[in-house]
Every structure is written in C-alpha cells, then in structure tokens.
Design goal:
- Helix content is 20%, strand content 42%.
- The protein is α+β, with helices and mostly antiparallel strands.
- The strands form two sheets. Strands 1-3-8-5-6 form a five-stranded antiparallel β-sheet, with no helix packed on it.
- Strand 9 and strand 10 form a beta hairpin.
- The termini are far apart.
- The mean pLDDT is 86.
Length: 148
C-alpha cells in the first residue's frame, strides 16, 4: 500500500513537471501590427489658382512598434496642382515617400481654375493603408475682391 501511494505521488509529480515544461515557451509574443488613422485639422474647401492650402496631419496609432515605417503617396483624380511636404519635397503622383514624423504638414498649390481633388494614402511597413480625400472648389480672385 505504501509503495502504491509513493508510486502515485511520483507519477503525479512527473505529470506536473511534464505540464510545466510543455507550457513554457522561450518565444516572445511581440505585437508588430497596430491600426492607425490620419487625423487632420479642418482644411479650406475653396482655393484660387496659384494659392496654397495647408493640410496639418497627424498619425493616430492604436499602439506603437518601434520598427514600423510609414509612407505617403497621393493621386489627383481631378484638377491640376502640386503637393509638397513641409521640408520642400514636391510629391509626384503615385510615388512613395517616407514619413519621418508622426506629425507633419502638407501644402497643396492650385494650378487650375477647375474643381480639384487629391487622395492621400498613408501606408505602413505591414501594408496597411489609410486614405483621405480633399476637394477644393475654385474661387476666382474677382469674387474675393467683391467680398472686401
């Protein structure tokens, strides 16, 4: 009887040890992919040919993984204009540019008297994409002078 109890205790200890060994993992579970969005301050909706509109932007992330890189590209389906970053880099449509900061400014300059629209895409290094669109209606300079 005593030998049987000792055998059961030894078997129980071995079972607990086996469960502890298989439950442990030396792999670290690090989350790398976090959702994000592009927040902007209100942007003017009317623009005169030759005028610049400022777009103040900030990446809003649900978490942060240090090695995540963010990129920007834009497309202009209607109108003509130029989009540049605050450091003076002129963005070419559909080309990908790195975003060095999570807060940045873009400047859109109108080259057209028609309605204009730009689509801005922010991508991360895990192929997540956020898109924002901005539309500008043309306002002629005569209308501005009449208002004064």
């Amino acid at each position: 009887m005593k030998k049987m109890i000792e055998s059961m205790i030894i078997a129980g200890c071995m079972l607990v040890a086996l469960l502890c060994i298989t439950a442990c993992s030396d792999k670290l579970d690090v989350q790398q992919v976090y959702e994000f969005d592009l927040a902007t301050l209100p942007v003017q909706t009317t623009i005169v040919k030759g005028e610049e509109a400022e777009i103040r932007c900030q990446l809003v992330r649900s978490g942060e993984y240090r090695d995540t890189k963010y990129f920007i590209r834009y497309f202009q389906p209607t109108g003509k204009g130029e989009l540049r970053m605050e450091d003076g880099t002129v963005l070419l449509p559909n080309d990908l540019y790195p975003l060095p900061e999570k807060t940045f400014r873009l400047y859109y300059k109108s080259f057209s008297t028609d309605q204009q629209k730009i689509d801005i895409y922010i991508l991360d290094s895990f192929n997540q994409v956020v898109q924002k669109s901005f539309a500008f209606n043309n306002e002629t300079e005569e209308k501005e002078e009449d208002a004064e």
